[in-house]
Design goal:
2 domains; binds pyridoxal-5'-phosphate; 3-stranded antiparallel sheet; 7-stranded mixed sheet; 13 helices
């Protein structure tokens, strides 16, 4: 059965290039043999360069939430403080509570960035041993100030910072070692432009030491288990080998383009979308200075029918557009420039939007 191709411009999963699918069609290999070990070891150096770490980068066969929940289970002994400013960050409090952990929300309005001073003030109570933080809040299009947040948390020796870079990884630099992060995680289906199902993460020495003191880490996301298997260039359980073949291909793409060039391309395409937004009289949901470089969350200040716009784009142009997430559905819409997007594909999207808006 063939399905008609609707090109994705939603902020995840993003469009996967045909050459990536072709790379994923490499013959299957066993995960306890030399071929897999070579695949695993071969991609480590480039993953470490992207994470900016000397720690290994682990491959988890799960979506990002698996590792997000795993970080809670591995690290929280006292209480976790969850920086909340949108759909993904808000949900982390509930996830922590469902893991049986003491959790508190440090809540900001959707569309506002996380404030490092407010975080520092709350940590000064000494109640917390872990902080969860989303670098790029995909629901609101806000890129939070990672460096300032990391600096605030570093003032507290026994507090570990868990950073979700699901929609910022490889879009902007994220320096795991230098920032002193406890855990940094990302997922395959956002800026890496792979199919969903693979999460990648790094763990600091301090975070391993914490995990060793936690008894109920479970098995599937146990950081210590990941480290043990890493020593043999393996994963704890059977990984999604086809997606890892795709990852190897995308790493080739990234390092052929050059990491700095990749960052610059994202910035350039994002700025192009921003100029279009302003030219139409739309506003941004995120404040100036905190706008994501991975996607644009457009405020529907013109009161257009977002559902009708989506339908036009799909029916007339075979493009998928996001109509806003959660409680800001319809009052916002989002345009992704993550992954393999080019001037041509973004120009095509903006021309399609012009056409569709003209027919509403
Ligand atoms: C998409 C996204 C997630 C969720 O990832 P899953 O792969 O669906 O688990 C988490 N955090 C952010 C910031 C995201 O954009």
């Amino acid at each position: 059965m063939t399905q008609e191709h609707i090109r994705l411009h939603i902020p995840g999963p993003v469009e996967v290039s045909p050459d990536t699918y072709a790379a994923m069609a490499a013959p299957m290999i066993g995960h306890r043999g030399k071929d897999f070990q070579a695949l695993y070891a071969g991609i480590q150096p480039r993953l470490q360069e992207l994470f900016q770490t000397r720690q290994p980068v682990f491959l988890s066969t799960s979506s990002a939430w698996g590792v997000m929940e795993g970080a809670i289970r591995n690290l929280v002994i006292k209480k976790v403080l969850c920086c909340c400013s949108g759909a993904f960050s808000d949900k982390w409090v509930d996830v922590a509570a469902r893991c049986g952990k003491q959790a508190e929300a440090l809540q900001f309005e959707w569309g506002e960035p996380v404030d490092p001073a407010a975080l520092e003030a709350r940590l000064a109570t000494g109640e917390f041993d872990t902080v969860t933080f989303i670098h790029n809040e995909t629901s609101t299009g806000v890129m939070n100030p990672l460096e300032e947040i990391a600096a605030a948390v570093r003032k507290f020796d026994d507090v570990l910072l868990v950073v979700d870079t699901v929609s910022s990884f490889s879009v902007v630099p994220t320096a795991f070692d230098e920032l002193g992060l406890g855990v940094m995680l990302t997922g395959s289906q956002k800026a890496l432009a792979l199919p969903p199902g693979l999460a990648l993460f790094a763990v600091s020495e301090a975070a391993y030491a914490r995990a060793e003191r936690v008894n109920d880490r479970g098995y599937y996301f146990d950081f210590i288990e990941f480290r043990k298997n890493q020593e043999k260039d393996m994963t704890p359980s059977t990984p999604c080998i086809a997606t890892i073949h795709g990852l190897r291909h995308q790493l080739n793409r990234i390092f052929t383009e050059g990491v700095a060039n990749r960052h610059a391309r994202h910035e350039h395409l994002n700025a192009k979308v921003a100029r279009w937004v302003e030219s139409k009289g739309f506003e941004f949901f995120a404040p100036e200075g905190y706008r994501s470089k991975a996607l644009t969350c457009v405020k529907n200040n013109l009161g257009i029918d977002v559902a009708a716009l989506q339908k036009r784009l799909r029916d007339d142009h075979r493009l998928a557009l996001d109509g806003g997430y959660g409680k800001i559905k319809g009052t916002t819409f989002r345009l992704s420039n993550m992954g393999d997007e080019t001037d041509e594909t973004i120009d095509n999207l903006l021309a399609a939007l012009d056409d569709a808006l003209g027919k509403l």
